[in-house]
User: Which sequence fits this backbone?
């Protein structure tokens, strides 16, 4: 599995991070760790003034530890290329993200990017969303709105669960101070419509459905190859 993650990260890094890439969006998760390894091992091929915009605390720490300059969107509102992991990617490049509760900032970074690239291992590949990722669609909600939003999600046919921290010490709290509700909608026939309906609920900050955003996805396969969807 680790090799598949590494293969996808290294292939995407080599293809999309060129000496012209000045501002790079760096996502979150375990696959992204290999993207930072790629950057570390290929410093001489990078823009001399490369600036990275991380999507959360984890990738920020990783980049800083490896000597890369990190900055905020205030300073660099346009990103040349953003690369991020995924929880599931369908045949049309609709993506579920938020397994690490970072999808709000991940979507902001992806939206600010001229080019958005997904890296993942083969477990994330599917024909239709809901086939592979059984945890449900992550939805970030302000704590004040939790109960009404859960009720509305049930009315919409979903099965919402408040995400709890390990050992059930309390709800997971995002980098933005909000809760995450994982909503099982079964197989998702129309991700864009589901995104629009869930995002419209008052108190929902962001939904972990990324539709019409990724241009290309790299999947590291069990046999050592890399499959590309675009
Ligand atoms: C975090 C995410 C991650 O990108 C996603 O969960 C994939 O993580 P990993 O590379 O560890 O499988 O969306 O919110």
Assistant:
């Amino acid at each position: 599995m680790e090799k598949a993650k590494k293969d996808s990260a290294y292939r995407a890094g080599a293809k999309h991070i060129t000496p012209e890439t000045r501002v790079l969006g760096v996502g979150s998760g375990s696959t992204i760790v290999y993207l930072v390894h790629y950057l570390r091992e290929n410093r001489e091929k990078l823009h001399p003034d490369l600036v990275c915009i991380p999507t959360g605390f984890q990738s920020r720490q990783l980049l800083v530890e490896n000597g890369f300059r990190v900055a905020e969107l205030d300073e660099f509102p346009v990103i040349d290329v953003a690369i991020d992991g995924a929880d599931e990617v369908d045949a049309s490049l609709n993506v579920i993200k938020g397994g690490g509760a970072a999808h709000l900032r991940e979507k902001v970074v992806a939206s600010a990017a001229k080019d958005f690239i997904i890296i993942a291992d083969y477990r994330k590949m599917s024909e239709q969303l809901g086939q592979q990722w059984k945890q449900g669609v992550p939805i970030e909600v302000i704590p004040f709105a939790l109960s009404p939003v859960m009720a509305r999600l049930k009315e919409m046919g979903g099965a919402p669960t408040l995400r709890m921290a390990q050992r059930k010490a309390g709800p997971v709290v995002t980098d933005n101070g909000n809760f995450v509700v994982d909503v099982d909608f079964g197989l998702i026939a129309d991700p864009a419509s589901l995104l629009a309906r869930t995002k419209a609920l008052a108190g929902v900050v962001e939904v972990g459905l990324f539709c019409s955003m990724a241009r290309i996805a790299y999947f590291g396969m069990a046999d050592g190859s890399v499959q590309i969807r675009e």
User: Anything to note?
Assistant: The mean pLDDT is 97. The pocket of ribulose-5-phosphate is lined by residues 27-31, 84-87, 97-103, 106 (CB under 6 Å). Residues 2-16 form the longest helix (15 residues). The CA atoms of residues 50 and 126 lie 34 Å apart.
